[in-house]
Design a protein that fits this description.
single chain; 7 helices; globular; ten-stranded antiparallel beta sheet; alpha+beta; Glucose Permease (Domain IIA); five-stranded antiparallel beta sheet
């Protein structure tokens, strides 16, 4: 049976309702199998890919099934594709447009006409080695030029009646939602690698929970993590990692949960399911993944002076030149040499808090008294200036003028979710926590099934 369309439209096939219902049910079952059931060869970890959506809320399986049916009923729109006889040229070190044009038989006149064209032709002045330029030449005349800047971005320049016209073309990447989990035997990095997480995602996971967990001191065998994250795909292939949407980290029996939430005015950040910021006003450590070589101890024997002398901070052993980060937003109140501290930077954080970074090899560019810094900004580099037996960072933390142990001091929270966003956030948080639990249950069921085999 066919359905006739209005003038100017092609006829569209119509199927019986019973057929559509059967297709919808079958599609729903298939989607459930793909998204919730792990594969037979999975071990302690699993990556699951879901159908991409544009909203924060995932559609139900029945809604996804109906979308698939609707897609099959829509007549595909054929785009007009101009056949191009491309000649590809890789940009070499030291190349100019004239060099590249010459290699394909074009001259300086052609370069001039292209650069005199309309649109974003100025981008051709910023070519880099390794990029590709594609030429369509007919009868020794340039018809079209494509400057491939990356896998997603290219500049298309085409001939028109009024000269050349340049237009940016950007391919849209498709986000796929994935899930991974793991249990730590020795280190977070090894467990995450086994779970299929990239180094970048592992660092991001550590950054999210870094205010609550010291990934050098606090990690224990048996700690675990669960992550829902995005992978960005282009033309059916993964191009890069996307964002972590939700994550849980269990450390020594304490479970921390983080939900990503984005607003138009404040951007994206991570919050607890109750809406408290995962960020604290201060980082727990000024150096990423550094080993503590000497703890806070007010009656320590000094390694150089060999006398009982209060060690009012924490020493982090690291290679010379390792970046040192400001643990909180603040103002530089001192940057210079200070006795046994050697080269030191002191930051004031509002009225209540102050931090000190000593034995630096050098200061970061622009760091001087009066400079404002942001949390995580590099302020200097590890060294051994002053009374030091080797390269390390000496870090002190003060509350109302009194020195405190940087490792154990209670850190203040950053701002929670805004009041006007709280209701919407709580809805998203509940859904994401539910997804984490659903995936974890599916993984546990698979482990049990594997044991029974």
């Amino acid at each position: 049976m066919t359905k006739h369309s209005s003038p100017g439209h092609k006829p569209q096939t119509s199927y019986p309702k019973l057929h559509l219902m059967a297709v919808a049910v079958c599609s729903a079952v298939m989607i459930l199998a793909l998204t919730l059931l792990p594969s037979p060869d999975a071990t302690a970890t699993k990556t699951v890919r879901l159908k991409p959506t544009s909203a924060n809320v995932e559609p139900t399986p029945i809604e996804q099934a109906q979308e698939l049916v609707d897609e099959q009923l829509v007549e595909p729109q054929m785009e007009t594709v101009i056949a191009r006889n491309w000649q590809d040229q890789k940009v070499r070190s030291g190349d100019t447009l004239s060099h590249i044009f010459k290699r394909v038989g074009l001259g300086s006149r052609d370069v001039y006409e292209v650069m005199a064209g309309q649109g974003d032709v100025e981008l051709l002045k910023k070519i880099h080695p390794g990029q590709t330029m594609r030429f369509d030449i007919e009868e020794q005349k340039l018809v079209a030029l494509e400057y491939v800047m990356s896998r997603t971005d290219s500049l298309m320049i085409e001939q028109s009646e009024n000269g050349y016209v340049a237009e940016m073309q950007i391919k849209e990447m498709v986000p796929f939602t994935s899930y991974a989990e793991g249990t730590i035997d020795s280190s977070l990095f090894l467990a995450a690698q086994k779970a299929g997480l990239s180094e970048g995602l592992t660092m991001e996971l550590a950054n999210i929970f870094g205010w609550d967990v010291d990934f050098v001191l606090d990690i224990r065998e048996g700690d675990s993590f669960r992550v829902i994250y995005q992978e960005m795909h282009l033309d059916g292939e993964k191009v890069k990692d996307g964002e972590i949407l939700a994550a849980q980290f269990t450390n020594q029996g304490n479970t921390f949960t983080a939900i990503r939430y984005e607003t138009s005015d404040r951007g994206a950040s991570y919050f607890t399911p109750q809406g408290e910021s995962m960020r604290k006003a201060f980082l727990r450590s000024p150096i990423s993944f550094a080993r503590i070589s000497s703890h806070f101890n007010l009656r320590r024997k000094h390694p150089v002076l060999h006398t009982i002398r209060a060690h009012k901070g924490t020493d982090y052993a690291a290679s010379r030149g390792t970046p040192i980060k400001a643990t909180g937003d603040g103002k530089v109140i001192f940057a210079g040499v200070k006795g046994g501290y050697g080269k030191v930077v002191i930051l004031q954080h509002g009225q209540k808090y102050r931090s000190l970074y000593a034995h630096m090899n050098n200061y970061a560019r622009g760091i001087r008294s009066g400079t404002r810094v942001k949390q995580g900004q590099t302020i200097g580099y590890v060294g051994s200036t002053g009374l030091a037996t080797g390269p390390h960072l000496h870090y002190e933390f003060y509350v109302n003028g009194a020195v405190r142990n940087p490792v154990t001091v209670k850190l203040p929270h950053a701002e929670p979710i805004a009041k006007q966003d709280k209701e919407a956030f709580l809805t998203v948080a509940q859904q994401m926590v539910g997804q984490l639990s659903t995936y974890a249950a599916a993984m546990e069921s698979e482990k049990v099934a594997n044991l029974d085999q």
